Every structure is written in C-alpha cells, then in structure tokens.
C-alpha cells in the first residue's frame, strides 16, 4: 500500500480558520451554549465540517438565529435548525428525536428550562460520543 | 552549435507552454495574467500557449506570497515540469510579500526560497505587457542552447 | 462481470479550469456526484490579522487587496463604513463618481466571470470576444482612476480624481461600443445550441435550496431571489435601481444574469453621467472612534465589513464577510450534487463565479 499523495493533514489550517476573530466568538458562544469544552468543540467541528463550512460558520450562525422565529419556542430553545442545517453538529434524525422528546416533556408539564436542559445534555452526549 | 541544436532552439522559441500557479495573492495579478490571453495582446503570435497543465509546461508563472497550504505541493509541481523549464515570479508578492508581509500574516515569502526563480516582474499588479515581455525574455535567456550548456 | 466502485475524484488545486487554487473532492457513484468536500487553505494570508491596529490609511489599501477582481467595491464598502462611523458626508458629485467606478468594476468582473465560463465549456471564441471587451472596460477604468486594478479611487469624504469633459466623452463612446458588441455576444450565448447543451438544466439550484444555503449575488438572483444590497444604497436609489432576476436556476441563468447586469451597469453609468452634479469631489472630515456594520453589493454578492475604530482613526477590530463563502458552499454542497457527469462539475463550479482570494482572505 503506497502512501497518500497530496492528502495532507488539514487540522492546522482548519484551526487557523477557527481562531480568527469572528469565528472564535461564534465557537465560544456555541461552547457556552452547549456547555462543552472549547477545545473539544473545536476538535469536533474540525473533524466533522469541511473548510468552506468552517469559513462561513459565523454567517450561517447569524442567519439561523434570525431565521428561528418565535413560532416554536422549543425548537428555538434547543436550536433544532441551528445545530442541524446551519451548523451540522448533530445528525438530523437524532435531533428530531431529541426535539420530539423535549416537546412531549414540555406538553406533559415538565418545567420548560428543565426540559431544555435535558435536551442540551442529550446533544452533549452525541457530541461526546 | 550543431544543426540539431539550432533546430531545437528555433522550435522551442516558437512554442512556449505556460502554466500558472497562485500561491496566495489578492487575485490582481491573476487577472492580469488572464488578460494576457486577450486578443489585444495576442500571445499566440509569439507561440505562447496557456494550458495550465504542469506536465506540458515550459514556463511556470508564480503568483502570490507562498501560503502554508503549498508546503507539500509546490515542489512536486515544479518537479513535474519537464526540462528545460523556468519560473517567473509575477507581482510583488512572490518577490517580497508586498503589503501582506507583516507580523501576524501566514505567508512565507520570497518564493525563490522554495523553487528557483528565473525572472521577476515587480508591480502591484504589473501590466499584461510587462508579463508578456518577461516570458519572452526568459525564452531567450533560458531555452537557447540548453543542451549545449548542460554539458 | 460488471464491477462498480465508488470513487473520490479530487479536482485541483492546479486545474486547467480553475483560475485560483481550490480543491473539490467529489465522491462519485459512477458518473453521478453524491457528495463533495471543499479543501481550502491555499490562499490564507490572514489579512484581518494584519489589518488590526493599523491606521485607516493603511487598511484602505489592504482592504482593496482582499480581492483584486472586485477591488473597487472592497474599497467602497470599507470607506463608507469609516464614513458612517465618523459621520463624514460625501459631496453629491463624488457619490455619483463612486457609482461610475463601482459599476465599471462590476462590468469587468462579470465579463471575466462569463469569459471563464465560456472557456470552461470550451467555447473559446465567445470567451475571447468577452475578454477583449473586458479590455475596453479596463481602458475606461484606467482613464478614470489611473490604474487598471487596485486603483484606490475612493477615499473618505470623496474620490481621488474628477472626470474631465474629454474623459466623459471617451467613457460615453466606449459604453456605446461595449453595448453594441455585448448585444451581439449575448445573442450568441442565448442562441448557441452547443452552449445550451452544456448550460441549460445543469447545476440546478432551486429557490428553496438557495434560501437554505444562503446564496447571494447573481447566484441567488438566478434562482429567483430578488436580493441586492444596492437597493438600500442612497445613490443607487436616486438612480432608480431594480435588481436583475431570472428563474431558470441553472448555469445558463447565472451567466445571463451577469450579462443582464452588465447592461444594467451601462444604463446606471449613463444615468450618472447625465445627472452628474457640479461641485467639489472631496469634502472634509475627521475619522473618529466608533463601531459599525456596513454592507454593499459586490459583483459576487453581499459584502459586509464589521469595523471598530479608535479616536485616531485606527482600526482596532475588523471582520470581513465576503460573498464567495456562501456561494462556494451553495455550489459545492447543492449545485454539483446530482449533476449527470463529472465533466459538468467544473463548469458548474465556475458558473457560480467563486473567488478563493475573497473566501480565505
């Protein structure tokens, strides 16, 4: 088996994209929002997103925040569209399950904040795994 | 000089294949190299063809200030070009880094550290006519009697 | 026995069709593309890092060098952001001259993009016609601003040079000639059967997909989204600006939108020259501290500068959001997915007019 030709390790270059001012701000915000370590989140995005997605991360983040209307408070609070279509951190299927569970909990009478916190914990698990 | 050499020189001077590579410029020099293709400058009257294929190139036009992405790619690219070959640095960036050569930038100029550069065309960006003149002067300096000078 | 394997076809960074280094790794199933990964990093210079802490006089020139093809709009957006921060008013004559310079720049950028497309689909004749036409535009730009590329024409409180009577006559004459030629070339593009074969119905970006991928500029307008930052610019409003929109959503539509915008630019420049107010071209003012977010319409789409300056007009913090980052993403993750053959990938990629220098800065 011969060595890979031209396939270099892109981690350093992707990291360079992530540390520029605006990207850094957005990554820190997401890390605080999901309550995961900054370096861990960086590692996760570097492994799961290609370079153009990393470049337009802030633009997509802002657009998704404006697009998320007040119509569905649960979807907005757990960032259903934000963390699937805009920033693909969680697979769509798993996110849908999390959303259904949380919505059911809220409907059943669980306090809103507690339900959202549970959803956050589930998303965190997905990213940890 | 042998007859064979004379014929080779004659043929080579009328058939120059150019490839260009952008090592991280602002695009300004890029479009001036492209503008050389325009019928106004008519580079094909000198037998210059821009194919952007290193395997069949004689002249490599280097634009830009050498970004880290090229570390593993520029030298293999240069080695792919068959002899005789020459590299021309177009614009200030490959020569000095121009306005990007400041603290905090990711670039690593000059390009002559990484591959041998035969000619330099300063300017930010240089005019198409200057680029054309550089290609023509490299043709005369590098390709004439190449086999003879190798011995 | 028929044996089918899935392959990963990398295109670039040095590729006959790409003018700039980018690498698109296409995952294919037979000839059909099912996924694509973009690999950048060949142009990352770190301009925003260099700009930090420098006076506007230096940042102005660096801003132009974010992208050489659309240098005037980068200059214009940065300067107008500085003006907005410091409350500097622009004399009306200068505001009109800015539009003239900007539209000339847009014309040459669109002509270059369409040349690249024609060259990629191997219609060299039309490509060369367009490139020759672009040289005429470059002549006018040089006459007006003093340089072909990166001309630094726009400065806080005005523009650098006035337009003389002779220059104006030359500009009008050139515009008439460009309009004549371009009408013919556009007709060639519209009616060419070979061009239609390689352009119509290829690289579809539907309106919904364009919305979701946040495509901007001609790429979005070719998908039927009427979005153009120029509608919010005060000078363009005076001139009665309407965006060019098409609904075909394919490569053909994107090229035709650019042709349409070149004609529109010619009309805008004529309107500017007809209504050019008398007066000074440079007002006064002082650059002061402040923070703002300012957007303009670059040839490729919406361009945003977010800047913060201090009392001496130094730039403390600057972030640039260029149009190509959205368009390349839309192109590589939506448009080229499902095209019928690998050969269409390059033409589809080029039809979105990607500018890697902007993307990576």
Walk me through the structure.
The complex is a heterotrimer of chains A (129), B (151) and C (361). Chain A is an all-alpha fold and 129 residues long. Chain A has helices at residues 11-18, 21-34, 38-48, 51-55, 57-67, 73-78, 82-86, 92-108, 112-128. Chain B has a single domain (17-145), classed as Rossmann fold (3-Layer(aba) Sandwich), CATH 3.40.50.12280. Helices cover 34% and strands 15% of the residues of chain B. Chain B has helices spanning 3-13, 28-35, 74-80, 93-96, 128-143, 146-150, and strands spanning 16-22, 48-50, 59-63, 86-90, 119-121. Chain C has helices at 47-51, 56-64, 71-86, 92-120, 124-145, 165-191, 193-199, 207-213, 217-221, 234-239, 251-274, 324-335, 343-351, 356-360, and strands at 6-11, 23-29, 32-39, 54-55, 154-155, 158-159, 290-298, 301-309, 314-321. The model of chain C has no long low-confidence stretch (mean pLDDT 86). In chain C, helix 3 packs antiparallel against helix 4 (92-120), helix 4 runs antiparallel to helix 5 (124-145) and helix 4 runs antiparallel to helix 13 (343-351). Chain C is of the alpha+beta class and 361 residues long. Chain C has a single domain (45-360), classed as Orthogonal Bundle (Cytochrome-c3 Hydrogenase, chain B), CATH 1.10.645.10. The chains are: A mainly alpha (129), B alpha/beta (151), C alpha+beta (361). At the A-B interface, helix 1 of A face loops of B.
Major β-sheet annotation of chain C? 4 strands, antiparallel
CATH H level, superfamily name of chain C: Cytochrome-c3 Hydrogenase, chain B
- Which sequence of strands runs across the widest sheet of chain C? 4-9-8-7
Would you give the CATH topology of chain C? Cytochrome-c3 Hydrogenase, chain B
Share in helix of chain A: over 70%
């Amino acid at each position: 088996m011969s060595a890979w030709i031209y396939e270099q390790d892109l981690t350093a270059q992707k990291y360079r994209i992530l540390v520029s001012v605006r990207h850094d701000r957005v990554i820190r915000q997401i890390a605080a929002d999901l309550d995961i370590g900054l370096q861990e989140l960086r590692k996760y995005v570097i492994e799961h997103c290609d370079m153009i997605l990393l470049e337009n991360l802030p633009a997509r983040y802002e657009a998704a925040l404006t697009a998320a209307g007040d119509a569905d408070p649960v979807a907005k609070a757990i960032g259903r569209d934000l963390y699937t279509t805009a920033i693909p951190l969680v697979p769509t299927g798993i996110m849908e399950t999390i959303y259904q569970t949380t919505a059911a909990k809220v409907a059943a009478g669980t306090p809103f904040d507690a339900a959202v916190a549970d959803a956050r914990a589930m998303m965190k698990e997905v990213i940890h795994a | 000089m042998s007859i064979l050499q004379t014929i080779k020189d004659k043929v080579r001077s009328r058939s120059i294949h150019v490839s260009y590579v952008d090592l991280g410029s602002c695009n300004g020099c890029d479009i001036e190299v492209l503008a050389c293709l325009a019928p106004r400058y008519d580079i094909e009257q000198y037998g210059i063809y821009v194919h952007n294929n290193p395997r069949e190139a004689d002249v490599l036009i280097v634009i830009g200030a050498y970004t880290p992405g090229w570390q593993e790619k520029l030298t293999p690219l240069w080695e792919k070009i068959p002899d005789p070959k020459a590299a021309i640095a177009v614009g200030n960036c490959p020569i000095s880094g121009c306005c990007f050569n400041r603290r905090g930038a990711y670039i690593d100029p000059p390009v002559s550290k990484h591959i041998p550069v035969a000619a330099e065309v300063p300017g930010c960006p240089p005019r198409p006519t200057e680029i054309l003149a550089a290609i023509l002067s490299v043709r005369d300096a590098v390709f004439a009697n190449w086999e003879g000078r190798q011995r | 026995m028929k044996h089918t394997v899935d392959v990963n076809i990398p295109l670039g960074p040095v590729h006959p069709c790409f003018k700039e280094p980018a690498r698109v790794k296409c995952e294919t199933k037979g000839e059909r593309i099912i996924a694509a990964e973009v690999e950048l990093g060949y142009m990352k210079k770190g301009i925003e890092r260099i700009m930090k802490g420098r006076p506007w006089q230096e940042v102005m020139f660096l801003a132009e060098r974010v992208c050489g093809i659309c240098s005037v709009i980068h200059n214009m957006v940065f300067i107008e952001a500085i003006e907005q921060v410091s409350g500097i008013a622009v004399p009306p004559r200068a505001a009109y001259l800015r539009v003239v310079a900007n539209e000339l720049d847009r014309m040459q950028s669109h002509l270059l993009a369409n040349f690249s497309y024609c060259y990629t689909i191997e219609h060299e004749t039309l490509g060369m016609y367009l490139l020759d036409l672009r040289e005429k535009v470059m002549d006018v730009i040089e006459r007006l601003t003093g340089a072909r590329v990166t001309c630094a024409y726009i400065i806080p409180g005005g523009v650098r040079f006035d337009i003389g009577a002779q220059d104006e006559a030359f500009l009008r004459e050139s515009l008439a000639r460009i309009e004549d030629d371009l009408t013919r070339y556009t007709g060639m593009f519209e009616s060419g059967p070979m061009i239609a074969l390689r352009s119509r119905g290829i690289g579809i970006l539907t309106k919904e997909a364009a919305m979701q991928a946040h495509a901007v500029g001609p790429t979005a307008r070719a998908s039927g989204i009427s979005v153009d930052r120029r509608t919010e610019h005060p000078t363009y409003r005076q001139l009665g600006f309407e965006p060019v929109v098409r609904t075909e959503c394919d490569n053909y539509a994107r090229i035709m939108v650019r042709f349409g915008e070149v004609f529109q630019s010619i009309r805008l420049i004529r309107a500017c020259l007809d209504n050019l107010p008398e007066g000074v071209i440079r007002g006064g003012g002082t650059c002061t501290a402040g923070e703002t977010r300012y957007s303009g319409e670059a040839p490729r789409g919406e361009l945003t500068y977010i800047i913060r300056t201090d009392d001496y007009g130094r730039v403390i913090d600057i972030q640039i959001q260029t149009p190509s980052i959205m368009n390349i993403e839309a192109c590589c993750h939506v448009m080229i997915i499902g095209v019928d053959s690998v050969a269409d990938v390059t033409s589809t990629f080029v039809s979105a007019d990607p500018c890697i220098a902007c993307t990576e800065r």
